[in-house]
Amino acid sequence: MGRGLMVYTNIQEFINDYERESQSTLKLLQVLTDESLKQEIAPGGGYRNLGDLAWHLVPHGGILDPTGLKVEFPEAAAAPASAGEIAQAYRKTAQSMIDAVRSQWTDADLQRELNMFGQVWKIGLTLDMFIKHEIHHRGQLTVLMRQAGLPVSGVYGPSKEEWAQFNMESPTV
């Protein structure tokens, strides 16, 4: 296990972290517009756009599949054309994730080991990687939101717009 990775040993600790992180993600998703979903990552497309990335933030299984956790995931594989649908799907799936962890696992389950990507991971580590995966893509989302001309809310501190609401200039780096 590398630096910066943790193994959750307590269900409530994970739920507290995921509730906080998912609220930050949902806050950003609620700003998206249907038009902004078309914002390309790079000119000419071919990979993903903002809508695809936003939809990728909605849990669809993936890293959680080997854990056996039963979560209500959206059925649609492709991103909807509606920003509201993406935000609603995220809200519903994040709550389903919290409810599933709370009802299906105990603290002892977090110590169970599984084969993940050819490595042995405890479920508690898998949950940490799940959250870090979301944080990583949420950062990418904020860049695309800026490119699309959308306001960005602060996650771990005030955004440019929030500094302005405080009648302060955002710090320079």
From TrEMBL:
The keyword Metal-binding is assigned to this record: yes
Pfam family, one: DinB
Keywords: Metal-binding
Metal-binding keyword on record: yes
SUPFAM superfamilies cross-referenced by the UniProt entry: DinB/YfiT-like putative metalloenzymes
Signal peptide span: none
Protein family according to the UniProt entry: Belongs to the DinB family.
Name listed for the protein in its UniProt record: DinB family protein
Organism: Paenibacillus aestuarii
